[in-house]
Specification:
heterodimer; A: 245 residues; alpha/beta; Rossmann fold; 4-stranded antiparallel beta sheet; 41% helix; globular; B: 248 residues; mainly alpha; 8 helices; 85% helix; 0% strand; elongated; binds adenosine-5'-triphosphate; binds magnesium ion
């Protein structure tokens, strides 16, 4: 379980997080919704320890990642993986090495084993056959898939997604959503997805949290979200029904 | 105030790198790979520039010393000029332009496309696996390239001496060996190692400073070249004074 308690973070005068409180349940998909620039990526980077808060705590399985020693931090990170907004594949390595990089560095596995694992993980995301391609040869959707495969290679307990569907066409986006949902079911992961895409949210979410003005203004399930009286959520839902006709 | 925080940032960066130094052996393959890339990439420009430098030095020494100095001094002028001063300095400045900017751009684009963050989330320490090997590589490659460049300068000077100045090859070579002081040769290597460290540290430091988008990467790359060139010149003097001020 991940518990976020009273998290504050500012960049100069830009007060991005102003007291975020949120619990992320195990073996479920939690979607954090919010408009562009509201601080979704910043919140996710705190959860995985890339950013340190000004104040507040984040407990991951009871360990406070904001106070963790470097060693504890590395150990926690081995339980977590993140799929970045822009995929963030290493330009200089072919797909299969991207997928297995962490295993090579940490577990000193042989190339043969690494290739087999790369193939397995790429099969999970329907990218088998792309092993030898370089990231620059992949489309946006393919990169996201490879990034997911790389995240899965560590067999994480927690999988964090930063806008998995942004920048993809609706069909590809829907495929990624189904992929995430399917993976979560079969592997029993705890997933956190940050997005402003309601289509994605309604496809995958077990729990929805809405981030606005530095705070979580709503926490609940899809039904609760759809019937919420909070004006911002109503606006959000209104634009969604317009685009859906 | 700004200058102070800059120095502080740089010092912190160097400290982060130094902390990883005890585990440098685990990244030797990466270092070799980087040295190789760097060497191949910069060899031709250094060979050509230093060759021409040696050529010009021999010619100038000959015209300036005409009538006063015996022709063996041409070789000596080239050897002294390049071991004490021009070899490390020219190589250092060339690499400060070429390698520093390339490093800053490479690391900078990894930074802004979140590749550095991604490595951290994979529990792969970017300072250990990305930064340290690159700094070690410039530290190793710069003295090697300097030596190669110095040889190229001697050859350039020799060709000038034999073809344009009609000096006997044997006299030119005698001049190169004349009054050869091993300490000076060692000094040129120490200097170039210092330059190599500067190039690697400044290039990676400015790369890690990049944030936002591609524009920031370009800006950091440009700034890194300025900083590295100035530092090479400053340390040329510092190391020069420390190494070469033996009593007369
Ligand atoms: N490292 C940083 N330094 C300074 N400011 C930052 C940094 N990272 C984020 N910010 C600022 O924090 C705010 C929130 O950024 P964030 O990237 O979290 O938004 P987001 O909700 O993920 O938006 P998007 O949907 O566009 O990705 C922005 O105003 C941004 O400029
Ligand atoms: Mg974002």
């Amino acid at each position: 379980m991940i518990e976020i308690k009273d998290l504050y973070k500012s960049f100069g005068d830009n007060h991005v997080l102003r007291g975020v409180n949120l619990t992320i349940p195990e073996k479920k998909i939690t979607v954090i919704l919010g408009r562009s620039g509201v601080g979704k990526s910043v919140l996710l980077k705190h959860i995985i320890g890339l950013l340190k808060p000004d104040s507040g705590n984040i407990f991951i399985d009871g360990i406070d990642i904001t106070r963790a020693s470097n060693k504890q931090l590395w150990n926690i990170r081995r339980k977590m993986a993140m799929v970045f907004q822009g995929a963030a594949l290493l330009d200089s390595l072919p797909v299969w090495q991207n997928v297995t990089l962490a295993l090579k560095v940490h577990d000193h596995m042989q190339e043969e084993d690494l290739r087999r694992i790369a193939h397995d993980k790429l099969t999970l995301v329907e990218m088998a056959g792309s092993e030898e391609l370089m990231p620059s040869e992949l489309s946006g959707g393919m990169k996201k898939r490879v990034a997911i495969a790389r995240a899965l290679a560590l067999e994480p307990k927690y999988l964090l997604f930063d806008e998995p569907t942004t920048g993809l066409d609706p069909l590809t986006a829907q495929k990624i959503n189904e992929l995430i949902k399917g993976l979560q079911k079969t592997l029993g992961l705890t997933a956190v997805i940050v997005t402003h895409d309601l289509q994605c949210t309604f496809t995958v979410a077990d729990k929805i949290a809405m981030l606005a003005e530095g705070k979580i203004i709503f926490e609940g399930d899809i039904e609760g979200f759809k019937t919420s009286n909070i004006p911002l959520i109503k606006q959000y839902l209104a634009t969604f029904s317009i685009t859906r006709g | 105030m700004k200058a102070l925080s800059y120095v502080g940032e740089l010092a912190l960066f160097i400290w982060e790198v130094l902390k990883r130094l005890p585990r440098v052996f685990s990244v030797i393959p990466y270092i070799i790979n980087e040295v190789w890339k760097l060497g191949i990439g910069s060899l031709s420009i250094i060979l050509i520039t230093l060759f021409l430098g040696g050529f010009a030095t021999a010619y100038t020494a000959a015209t300036q010393g005409k009538g006063y100095l015996p022709e063996v001094y041409i070789g000596m002028a080239v050897a002294k000029a390049f071991f004490i001063m021009l070899g490390p300095l020219l190589t250092g400045l060339l690499l400060a332009g070429k390698v520093t900017s390339a490093l800053a751009a490479e690391i900078g684009s990894m930074k802004v496309t979140e590749q550095i963050d991604a490595l951290e989330t994979l529990a792969i320490d970017p300072y250990h696996y990305i930064i340290l090997p690159r700094i070690m590589a410039t530290l190793i490659a710069t003295p090697i390239l300097t030596m190669v460049g110095e040889v190229s300068a001697m050859i350039g000077g020799g060709i000038c001496a034999v073809t344009l100045l009609h000096v006997k090859l044997i006299n030119y070579i005698e001049g190169l060996r004349f009054n050869f002081i091993p300490m000076e040769f060692a000094g040129s290597l120490v200097k170039s190692a210092v330059f190599g460290a500067i190039i690697g540290i400044i290039g990676t430091f400015y790369g890690m400073k990049a944030m936002g988008g591609a524009e920031s990467v370009g800006k950091c790359a440009t700034q890194s070249v300025v900083a590295a060139s100035v530092l090479v010149l400053v340390f040329d003097n510092i190391v020069g004074v420390l190494m070469f001020n033996y009593p007369i």
